[in-house]
Amino acid sequence: MSVTHTDVPMTLKVTDDCPVRDVLDRVGDKWSVLIVVLLGRRTHRFGELHRAIEGISQRMLTLTLRALVRDGLVTRTAHATVPPRVDYELTEMGRTLLVPLSALDEWANAHRDDIRAARERHDRGTTA
Amino acid sequence: MSVTHTDVPMTLKVTDDCPVRDVLDRVGDKWSVLIVVLLGRRTHRFGELHRAIEGISQRMLTLTLRALVRDGLVTRTAHATVPPRVDYELTEMGRTLLVPLSALDEWANAHRDDIRAARERHDRGTTA
DNA sequence: CGGGATCCTAAGCGATACTG
DNA sequence: CAGTATCGCTTAGGATCCCG
Known about the structure:
Two copies of one chain form a homodimer. Chain A is mainly α. The first copy, chain A, has five helices and three strands; from the N terminus they run H-H-E-H-H-E-E-H.
């Protein structure tokens, strides 16, 4: 595959208030993507996410979910049962985010080895 | 526009070593995307990037470029002239990254207002 | 069960000064 | 011009304990 300058949309703004950076500021943190992807599969309870993600602290799960809810990407539904039960679900907008994320995922899968190789090549070159 | 679960590729891995997170770890920092996009337009000298980006410190420009070079996304060409001149250019792999980044950019442009609206709605709801 | 509140550390990043 | 080196701040985020 080859990508030339003209293949790439030149609509990307950069200097002043760059939209791409906006998304990354929102979703570029350590856990948001993971949560969005999991919720893309199905609705999850708090504890389910907590167990599914492996490594996330309760605190960060709460904070990240709260931010996602705030931005309208996720809905929070608290059931007044005992013990309490809270369901998190992607909104319509949240689901549309899965599309560009998949593109990124595809790229990652395609080039993961190349990056690793480049990295090792580089590290050998500088250490030697 | 509507996105259902079945519209979205379920190939996204999550729990153990998620490729999407790899990319975001690499390019989710404050400046990488900006640099990649700028280099997507044309080769830039160090100082050109420094002026073009507005707000980046010399230190972070150096560090970010070095990381991009290490991962094989950018090439560094130092000309042995005086004063010195160093050119940075996207590699072939670096250019392919512009494609998923554009997808993300498109999404950002499409939903930027929605997010802002959701955020304000939410903030009013919690403050009130 | 689903959080909140608090404390603490490590990383990210900017500012500044110096160099080949 | 294109960096390097050092410092210091600010933030992200983990750990722990508490609570309805």
